[in-house]
Amino acid sequence: MALLKRLIDWIDVRIGAREVVAKELTGYLLPRNINTWYSMGSILLFIFAMQVATGILLLIYYVPDADKAFKSVTFIMNEVPFGWLIRLCHTVGSSLMVLVLFFHMLSVLFMNSYKSPRELNWLTGFILFTMVQGISLTGYLLPWSQLSFWATTVATNSVGAIPAVGQYLVEFLRGGKLVGPPTLGRFFALHVALIPAVIAALVGAHLFFLQRTGVSTPPFGQKETANQWKGDGYHYENHPGGIPFFPVYAFEDVRSIFIYLACFLGVVFFFPNLLFTRDAFIPANPLLTPAHIKPEWYFLANYQTLKLFPSEFLGLAVQGVAMTFLALLPFIDRGPERHPLKRPLFMVCALGGLLLWIGLGVWGHYS
Amino acid sequence: MENSGRRTFLGLCLGGLAAAAAAAAAWPVYRYLSPRSTATTAARVDIPEKDVPEGEAKFFELGGASAVLVRKPGGGLIALSAVCTHMGCIVQWEKDKLDFLCPCHGGHYTAEGAVISGPPPKPLAKLPFTVANGVITVG
């Protein structure tokens, strides 16, 4: 312990580390009525780190070549010691990252934390959400199985519904008229280099905005629940008399991460094939379309929406409008009230939208 | 005092649990990264005699390392490790000079593997072999 103290002293006299800890950790106070939903961001950071670590490990054996990709994934799963564990952690982690991201966004939505001055937090978070969908979509192709090949064919094909430039965009995305080896090269580069870098930059921006505006106060258990910020100048929302981030809430974060890990490892060890269909174990065959190819669960609502509309363009346009509305929500919903139970119209729209999304997803799954 | 003892005990338990969890997570990663068995190529290799004409060298993999068979003018066979004893590069056969050159740092070996010049500290390792029914078995 004496050695540790001497090491800390040595660092402290050089960079003032204790001052940083006092300001950013022990002296960083959070609202007293903070709840577990505020841990979702920390869980997401943990998942992202896990995805990066397992992704780097997979890169050691994965071969991004259409002739070898499926074989290399089979090799990882069957031959490399604990390769199955690393790959399952990566695939299950990607799905759970989307799920936790949904929970994070829903908690922000229902606690009305997206309201001014936190528009930039919401916007960066929303772009992160689309990036996570993008990284999941591009990663889906990499095993080069029947499932990944045909799911990518369907997903990229829908872009063709955009008037005038649609067909060109499809070819540009695929690197050719059909999904093939050039598509694998493109998606691989996007999946392992470009999108992770964009996600890391956006996470940095998201945390920076959080740091500058301060943690929002949950509207629950408060007498005054209206937004106090008038937009007349920069204001940091501090919480005098609040609970310190370290050690109090940091332990809450750790507890939430352990609960997540329990669920995550439960799927990895007890339901390893939950996310795989039979077609995931057959190498891609560009001449043999399997029946009933479905996208991942989080794209099922989009898939069903496209099927519902008589024109594919209309289906895409409706989704585009819905996504734009969500992205710009803090700029549209400018009312000061933040308590969801004092906002019946908001509650009806938010719950209705959520139920519609779940309903379309279930319909898409069974259709 | 009692509180302090309890705190130390709980701290030790927590530290032990954290160490066990870290080891449980690190072990699969270590095993995943560990080199696979070096015996990816056979420990014995059969080469037809006709593949090694006089004055020629035949390079091949033996037990995960590089090896070479040389037939000297006159018919004598030699099996050697092809790994230079200086820095581990693979030597090349110089047919015109009937010797080995290591292109990394200019080490020269005779066809028997003895050092002629350059930095190699010792000769190329000799490998056992047998010849039967027109087949050379090395290893």
Provide the fold topology:
The complex is a heterodimer of chains A (367) and B (139).
Chain A: H1 2-15, H2 17-26, E1 29-30, H3 40-61, H4 69-78, H5 83-110, H6 119-141, H7 146-157, H8 166-174, H9 181-213, E2 243-244, H10 245-270, H11 300-308, H12 312-327, H13 329-332, H14 344-366
Antiparallel strand pairs in A: 1-2
Chain B: H1 2-33, E1 45-48, E2 57-62, E3 65-71, E4 77-81, E5 92-94, E6 99-102, E7 107-110, E8 115-117, E9 129-132, E10 135-138
Antiparallel strand pairs in B: 1-10, 2-3, 3-4, 5-6, 6-7, 7-8, 9-10
Describe this structure in words.
The complex is a heterodimer of chains A (367) and B (139). With 367 residues, chain A is mainly alpha-helical. Chain A has a domain at 38-216 and 244-293: Cytochrome Bc1 Complex, Chain C. Helices cover 65% and strands 1% of the residues of chain A. Chain A has 14 helices and 2 strands. Chain A has helices at 2-15, 17-26, 40-61, 69-78, 83-110, 119-141, 146-157, 166-174, 181-213, 245-270, 300-308, 312-327, 329-332, 344-366; strands at 29-30, 243-244. Chain A starts with a helix and ends with a helix. Chain B is an alpha+beta fold and 139 residues long. Chain B has 2 domains: 1-34; 45-138, Rieske [2Fe-2S] iron-sulphur domain (Rieske Iron-sulfur Protein), CATH 2.102.10.10. Chain B contains 1 helix and 10 strands; from the N terminus they run αββββββββββ. In chain B, a hairpin with a 2-residue loop joins strand 9 (129-132) and strand 10. The chains are: A mainly alpha (367), B alpha+beta (139). Chain A binds chain B through residues 57, 60, 80-83, 85-86, and chain B through 28-29, 31-34, 36.
